Amino acid sequence: EVHLLESGGGLVQPGGSLRLSCAASGFAFSDSALTWVRQAPGKGLEWVSGIYSNGARFYADSMKGRFTISRDNAKNTVYLQMNSLKPEDTAVYYCQALIDGVNYWGQGTQVTVSS
Known about the structure:
Blueprint: E1 3-7, E2 10-12, E3 18-25, E4 34-39, E5 45-51, E6 57-59, E7 67-72, E8 77-82, E9 91-99, E10 102-105, E11 109-113
Parallel strand pairs: 2-11
Antiparallel strand pairs: 1-3, 3-8, 4-5, 4-9, 5-6, 7-8, 9-10, 9-11
């Protein structure tokens, strides 16, 4: 059974940093692409970043230069390092994996950027 468990969210001041983690199990993690998606209050889902099994990384334009995605295949974990956070980054952040044509999601972790 596929499981994705996010952690690391919290309250941070503008300009601050957080590192999100997504611990995965139940599938061939090292062979899989993982993504981060977020949902701000009252808004739809927004793709944030993705990392392929070969390590190739992709970011939404508004996150380039501020966010860094990485993976540790030995720990079956994907990370999202978020720097220079802005109030508009406030959202629930979800880890997502597409496995055999099925999208799997974690429960999400809340990130609040506020002074």
